[in-house]
Design brief:
The chain is α/β, with parallel strands linked by helices and 238 residues long. It contains 10 helices and 10 strands. A hairpin with a 2-residue loop joins strand 4 and strand 5. The mean pLDDT is 92.
Length: 238
């Protein structure tokens, strides 16, 4: 099967400092792929380069058969990539409903599709329907993460990039967020997941890559990596 996302020898520098040293990864349609590793490994930079928020200084990013290397962010969104950033990135001064409407901005001409997407979001996150008219600033951290994911789903994109969805959440909310990711996956979504909680990430992913100091040091089926002695020792507390 042809990969939906094919990252080839990607190099990213911040000034003169190299952050990614020629990494390669791919994501097949309908697959959840986790990118795990310690803080500072380059995980967030990888997502930012894919979505057009960080500039590549080498390599290529191929999405759905098209070279999007260094395409501006609005073009990657139009191509079908939706990025849920670390820290959620919701508009705190806008209501829940307004945030969701902004997620559907590029498909607003198709009112039926937008309505269907909104109902799907409410099925996944009933709390958002209850909070529809509340400003984003009044939501709890878990509710803000739900809104960030819900807004991303409103785009109708082909691929979801999620950066640290469990960050700052209580364990019960982490479980809830990953249950939703499983449900989104069951619906056929394609997801590239960056997550510090390696145990949860490997539990939901089909495959995974381990990134250290800007280099991929391990890759394979998520279940195999979850049972790997080296991964357990480094990331799972085993």
């Amino acid at each position: 099967m042809k990969a939906l996302l094919d990252v080839r020898e990607l190099v990213v520098r911040y000034g003169d400092i190299p952050v990614l040293h020629g990494i390669s990864l791919e994501v097949q349609p309908g697959e959840v792929v986790a990118l795990i590793g310690p803080n500072g490994a380059g995980k967030t930079t990888t997502l930012r380069a894919i979505s057009g928020l960080a500039r590549a200084s080498g390599g290529a990013i191929i999405f759905d058969g098209h070279d999007i290397t260094n395409a501006p962010a609005h073009e990657t969104v139009r191509a079908g990539i939706t990025h849920v950033p670390e820290g959620r990135g919701i508009f705190t001064n806008l209501s829940v409903g307004e945030n969701l409407e902004l997620g559907a901005y590029m498909r607003r001409a198709d009112a039926d599709a937008v309505a269907q997407a909104r109902e799907r979001v409410f099925r996944l996150f009933p709390r958002l329907k209850e909070r529809l008219n509340q400003p984003g600033a009044t939501l709890s951290g878990g509710e803000q993460q739900m809104l960030a994911l819900g807004r991303a789903l409103m785009t109708g994109g082909k691929m979801l990039l999620t950066d640290e969805p469990s960050m700052g959440l209580a364990p019960v909310l982490v479980d809830q967020i990953f249950d939703v990711i499983r449900e989104i996956k069951a619906g056929g979504a394609t997801i590239l997941l960056v997550e510090q909680n390696a145990y949860q990430a490997l539990g939901v992913a089909d495959r995974a890559y381990v990134l250290e100091t800007g280099r991929i040091v391990l890759e394979g089926r998520a279940a195999e990596l979850r049972n790997s002695t080296a991964v357990k020792r480094a990331y799972l507390g085993g």
